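To the team - guanosine-5'-triphosphate complex, inputs and output below.
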Amino acid sequence: MTAQPGVLPGPVPVTVLTGFLGSGKTTLLNRLLRDPALRDTVVIVNEFGAVGLDHLLVESSGEGIVELSDGCICCTVRGDLVDTLADLVDRVQTGRLGAIRRVVIETTGLADPTPILASLMGHPVLVQHFALDGVVTLVDALSGAASLAERPEARRQVACADRLVLTKTDLEPETAALRHSLRHLNARAPLVAVGDAGPGELFGCGLVDPATRRADVARWLGEETGIRNADACHDPHCGHDHSHGDHGSAHGAIRSLSLTHDVPMTEADAEGFLDLVLTRFGAGLLRLKAVVWTVEMPGRPLVLHGVRTYLHPSVRLVTWPDGEAPRTAFVLIGEGLDERVIRDLFAAFARAPRIDAPDRAALVDNPLSLSSRGF
Ligand SMILES: Nc1nc2c(ncn2[C@@H]2O[C@H](COP(=O)(O)OP(=O)(O)OP(=O)(O)O)[C@@H](O)[C@H]2O)c(=O)[nH]1
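Output:
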């Protein structure tokens, strides 16, 4: 059946796609979106940090992506999510947007999905147009055990999953201990390896019973979050820094730092910067991603991904996405990231050293030379 523009075909199924930082959400989404079964899917991408990169990396048509940046969907931009869904309804009903068959919300890697579910299931207008289809949680075989051990958000993502997807088993085939931990946190969600996860395994499985789920969500919220109203931060202990801009964004002690540069840089300089960041801050670094405007191939952005200290192979996009002016953007997420030192390092490798800070040559000779500034 082809859905008609101007009419929502019954409640539109909404999938919440979550998983800790770098677990492979965008990668899986890109593969799934190529499947004709997922045409007319709207993807809502939420990123933690002032500079969003995922909208460049999700391969979908422009009008099929909505970006919610500079805040985490489970707290600071939750009102934006409600507005975005309400706006989708309005755009379909007024004919400004064609049919919508499905919505996928890709959360930040630090999101607690529970408040998102509460918004979806408790909003009097949204429930008339949208129905929760399920929570799909990705767990990275390489770093999932560490994330589950250290981060309550990672455990919560697993606990409220309707489907668990194990990624990066090609890099770490030994998964018995991790599977055991996942079963301990969530005994009911089927667990599939990412290679076996097609749209049929993840979407439209009818796993969510609204009545039971509403009770679950209320219990989860009551247990750990103490939510007060739609705009309130859900975690009384999180200490979220709700300010934005140059000082990065914070989620508890975790903060996000964004760096941009408007002149092409060499691949060697981008890699040299990363090497020094990993050497200096690797212990606290949870995630880095970058889109680099390079001297070598200015028309083809270089994409870099790191998860903890593991650097994934770099890739080149075919071209800059429509409407995107070339520029370099790095996003670093972690604990104990010293913003001044990192900005000085970046400026040196971008060949625009800050006054009184060592230049690239000095840093390559002596990577600790920034310490002499007293940081
Ligand atoms: N080898 C391998 N690499 C993977 C797999 N899934 C994802 N990756 C790589 O892991 C890195 C991070 O993947 P993303 O899809 O960006 O992860 P994400 O969960 O969207 O990241 P955040 O939005 O930052 O939380 C990229 O370099 C991917 O190519 C996998 O199954 N195997």
